[in-house]
Amino acid sequence: MNDTLAHPLVQAYLSSVGQGVVALPDVRRQELLADLREHIEVALADADTVDEGSVRRVLDQLGTPGEVVAAALAEEAGSGPVPESGRRTAVTLCLIVVALPASLIPVIGPFFALAAMIAALVRLWKSPQWVRREKRQATLLMLSPVIAVPVLAVVFSVASGGLTPVALMAALLAAVPLPVAAAVRLHRSAARVRQQLR
Amino acid sequence: MASQLRKGVLEYCVLALLRDGPRYGVELLAELARVDVMATSQGTIYPLLSRLRRTGLADTHLQESENGPPRRYYTLTDAGRSALEEFTANWPSFRTAVDHFLTPGETT
Hints:
The complex is a heterodimer. By secondary structure, chain A is mainly alpha-helical. Chain A has helices spanning 2-6, 8-20, 26-46, 52-62, 65-77, 86-102, 109-126, 132-143, 145-160, 165-175, 177-197. Chain A folds into two domains: 2-77, no CATH class; 86-197, no CATH class. Chain A is built from eleven helices and no strands. The longest helix of chain A has 21 residues, at 26-46. Chain A is elongated, with a radius of gyration of 26 Å. Chain B is elongated. Chain B is α+β, with helices and mostly antiparallel strands. The longest helix of chain B is centred in the last third of the chain and has 25 residues, at 78-102. Chain B contains four helices and three strands, in the order αβααββα. A three-stranded antiparallel sheet of chain B has the order 1-3-2. The model of chain B has no long low-confidence stretch (mean pLDDT 89).
């Protein structure tokens, strides 16, 4: 039964569909290819003889790779990211950017930073505008200062001889690009989603 | 034109084909292809089947076969059955409404 899948025509067909649906989530792509593989195997097992002609017939009935790809992409379009209001996005991105520098404000700073961070994460994960992968990447970038700041503080302290407030502040500021990068990426993909719907 | 029409009703035709029992993919598609209007490139149905599975309207299981590889059988879930019943209930009035507009002299 594996011989039928090894047939050059089948190989070419499957790889052509595979290339066409690279934009789909991995799970969906694998599932489609597995479904097609199973279909070809079963259809050829149902056929009396397996020769070039029957392979062609089975592939013809499936439709051109282009038709299958178009159907798969159309099916996925309905469940893709949905844009939210520009204002909502702006608030979320501001919270992401502001949290870390805000921790420098005396006394209330750390509490404010923590609150901003939590609010930003909740808004990010509740939004239908970004796919899971984008949310995960953004979350990692947002939380990375938790590790990056102490590490940088140690490095700066060693460099300047002893842990000084200046070294700590420098470490905080040096980590600011991390959440900013998260905000920039989220902003770009949100703009892309809006563009597509136009 | 025909493909636009088909898009809306195809999934209910698939659900209807599963009403009386499980069918495997190739069998299901061959059954669809038997009716000219619903005939379409078979490969384009798999994304639809995947969605039915994902949204819980249909379920699948593998079953050994006497000849060749195991077959993936599609079955109707309870949710699928009630979606089909709802569509079946709505369809006649929908069909009548379209006929109403299409038949000359019917509209006033």
